[in-house]
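Read as amino acids, tokens; as here:

___
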Amino acid sequence: MSEPRLNTAAVYGARPGSPLLFHIAAVGERPMTFGADGLPPGLALDAASGVISGTTGAVGTYHVVLHAENAHGRAEKPLRIVIGIDFALTPPMGFNTWGGWGPAVTEANVREGAQALFDTGLAEHGYCYVNIDDGWQGHRDGALQPNDKFGDPARLCADLHRLGLKVGTYSTPWVSSYAGFCGGSSDEPSGAWQPSTPVHAGWRCGRHLFDQTDAQQVAAWGFDYFKYDWLIDSVDLARSMGNALRDSGRDIVLELSNSAPLAEATAYTEIASMCRTTGDIVDVWDRSQLDDDKRRWALGVRDIWLGHRAWQAYNRPGHWNMPCPLRVGLLGGWDLQPLRPTRLTADEQYSHVSLWCLWSAPLIIGCPPERLDAFTLGLLTNDEVLALDQDELGHQAYDLEPRGSGEVLVKELADGTRAVGLFNVGDSTVRVGVAWSELGLTGPQQVRDLWRQADLGERHDDFAADVPPHGVVLVKLTPA
């Protein structure tokens, strides 16, 4: 499109005294000039890039009006900036290096992926996190430091911050990581990863943990996101790192991985910005499609669905239930094989992204963004679908009673409307429907198909559609 359109979420949070960085997401022909009326004191906007930055100690809610203008027109959108105790008030959006490059990731891969967020336009749809997973860690003089595939982390963070992007990193309390790299600072460092290092080698905690040291180091470098891996049934370890990050002087999103136990959900969700709710996802519909070895640990889209829904009550602004990065596009990761297309069918991919958006889940792309094909790019940039994920209410959709192989998810939105996903978990096309009475709605509703971005007209009592195998029809219902 030529004229400006703002795709920024409706709310953004930061703590007083923490550096704030916010990129205004907008599509439309460049050059484009940005404005922001009513910013909190201490914050400033770069009118050319649309990046808001600075630090403020002024606690409160600020009603800002964003605007973008180019040769074809002008667009405006309200934004609430909340300076208080919470941040990550909408689910983080970005990409993670593991699904594409696995432990072979280099700084060059990270920089290329970051630039691709702009080259593909993903940044103008809200994707801003560049998350480095397992594979960057070295160890020097008793401290966690980058290995020889990476240069100065502070320079990397500063370069990406200038673009308006945020940067994530990875560690673990274990002596060595999943891929055999050094774990957190400890008096028992493991050696640098080598291709012959067995997976899971050295998985034990060191005699001494240096959470404060590591948190202060990643904050000093300028990281904005911290994935802390393999904290199964270890609330104390999670709390220790969570406190250290909160005391670091930066707003650092803490992702707890892997698979926090539901019995400890209250504790974990008070500690972290994000908690993994299930095991690792692979690009299949369900685990029955996997060989026996992978079936022991890997999950498909449907398996994730069945486990994730138990966490519904814990999803909220400031804490997000994390079902795993998206498995679309060209994938590599675990096996270090050449990148190959996802094995999910087109309909399964629509269901995959629809579920994550209905759940208000973090949208972390699990493939190299510089290698996106047109279909995958379209899948990841439908702003009407993404708006469900970024809805400021932050509700996770709930499941209605199944109807044969048809299943229905319902999400309450901040504007009082409903989003409804009609899914088919079976192997042949079925008709799936929902009655307004099941949703607590009365009166006629306007139905809009969000994937097709098309109005389907007014319905008085219900709506039904033919849904292909493992597919979805995703609609928004608005009172007529």
